[in-house]
Amino acid sequence: DAKTTQPPSMDCAEGRAANLPCNHSTISGNEYVYWYRQIHSQGPQYIIHGLKNNETNEMASLIITEDRKSSTLILPHATLRDTAVYYCIVRAVEFGNEKLTFGTGTRLTIIP
Amino acid sequence: DAGVIQSPRHEVTEMGQEVTLRCKPISGHNSLFWYRQTMMRGLELLIYFNNNVPIDDSGMPEDRFSAKMPNASFSTLKIQPSEPRDSAVYFCASRQRGVGRTEAFFGQGTRLTVV
């Protein structure tokens, strides 16, 4: 699976949009971009994933560049409960390749 | 569904003792994962199962660790004998295999302390 690079930490004001970047310059054509987050002391939680089109769900939006070498997770109106470590993971979705490998992630702190 | 259920939530044991961690995956899920999390090493995949069969155990640190999945609704991770460096939070996750939306659901973890 391709490696990802994320900033170690970010701050965002409550109520503002939080934009979390992720670089995955070695991504392959069959690899998806997944985002998970881990709130303190809890298990990781799925947020969103995409292949090449931008995606949106009730939690967040995922913007993937046209060359797919980077992406941005957007939390449109950040709240204090969004304070967590956010993981960007690239993974080929195919039988026999089930691994979900976590990097160091970005520690997002929402400031009141 | 109650989600992935892990037990116990906390375990304190003495060095040399056997420790067994338990996991009940979400009903209908056919992939199960065991992870370990420490401050130093982050989240590490230890082993995963597909349809109750171990597929990749390359993350298991050494022979003291073993995992089993006797049926689709239960898995154990055993450490024998335990050592202080095994102290960590152990997470179990399950997923429905398939192409497309296949997110993993994690349990609340078991915090293991070996003294």
Mind sketching the topology for me?
The complex is a heterodimer of chains A (112) and B (115).
Chain A: E1 9-13, E2 18-23, E3 31-38, E4 45-50, E5 55-56, E6 61-64, E7 70-75, E8 84-92, E9 106-111
Parallel strand pairs in A: 1-9
Antiparallel strand pairs in A: 2-7, 3-4, 3-8, 5-6, 6-7, 8-9
Chain B: E1 5-7, E2 10-13, E3 19-24, E4 31-38, E5 42-50, E6 53-56, E7 65-71, E8 74-79, E9 88-95, E10 105-106, E11 110-114
Parallel strand pairs in B: 2-11
Antiparallel strand pairs in B: 1-3, 3-8, 4-5, 4-9, 5-6, 7-8, 9-10, 9-11
List keywords for this structure.
heterodimer; A: 112 residues; mainly beta; five-stranded mixed beta sheet; four-stranded antiparallel beta sheet; globular; B: 115 residues; seven-stranded mixed beta sheet; 54% strand
Structural description of this entry:
The complex is a heterodimer of chains A (112) and B (115). With 112 residues, chain A is mainly β. Chain A is globular. At the A-B interface, strand 4 of A face strand 4, strand 5, strand 9 and strand 10 of B.
Structural class by helix and strand composition of chain B = mainly beta
Give the overall shape of chain B: globular
Low-confidence runs of chain A: none
Order of SSEs of chain B, N→C?
A: EEEEEEEEEEE
Summarize the structure.
Chain A has 112 residues and is mostly beta strands. Helices cover 0% and strands 46% of the residues of chain A.
